Amino acid sequence: MASVAYVRRFSRTERALHWLHAGAFFVLLFSGLVLYLPSLSVAVSNRPLVKAIHVYTAIAWLLALLLVVLVGDRPGLRRTLRELDLFDRDDRRWLAARAAPQGRFNAGQKLNAALTGAIAVLFSVSGFLLWYGERDTDFRWTSTILLHDALTAVSVLLVAGHLYLTLIHPSTRHSLRGMTLGSVREDWARQHHVKWVPPEEHPRPERATDARRGG
Prior knowledge:
Blueprint: E1 6-8, H1 12-36, H2 38-44, H3 47-71, H4 74-85, H5 89-95, H6 107-133, H7 142-167, H8 175-180, E2 183-185, H9 186-192, E3 208-210
Parallel strand pairs: 1-3
Antiparallel strand pairs: 1-2
Helix pairs in contact: 1-2, 1-3, 6-7
């Protein structure tokens, strides 16, 4: 049997942040839909409980993310942020649907990370205003509800695309292994992220290894 070499793509801290964010998102999405859609609200028939779940999940999400950042690999997270923040010529060519080598994150993943971060901030602000508006009517603004609803719609589209690429699309679904086990096949990484794992003359042994600073 031919040996398979792996490279470490995501650290435990990165994976913890991802799964905390993903888990909280789906709880907030389903509880929010129950609060938003009358048919679901009637079916559940316990709106106060669902609202409490929605609010306390949001609080727990923010606190958990902060805790992971505080106790996790902060230098590694700073390197990841620098990678995500860097848009070079190859990234612009990739976005223009032209072949271009990519680093640990391709241009689409960088855009997705930026949108996800911005949406998370706007969700937090608008969610707080909705909660506070129930206690002080001076802060009960229709625009806040519209913003929260629009963010939900955009988030659903982004997550649907993300799930398609990680679960269904043949050439990209292997990336899920990086977010579950931390490593990906070296040949796959060289094909899709050659600037992160450059070609080598001799393959590595059959074990998970670090690629540059991806661990």
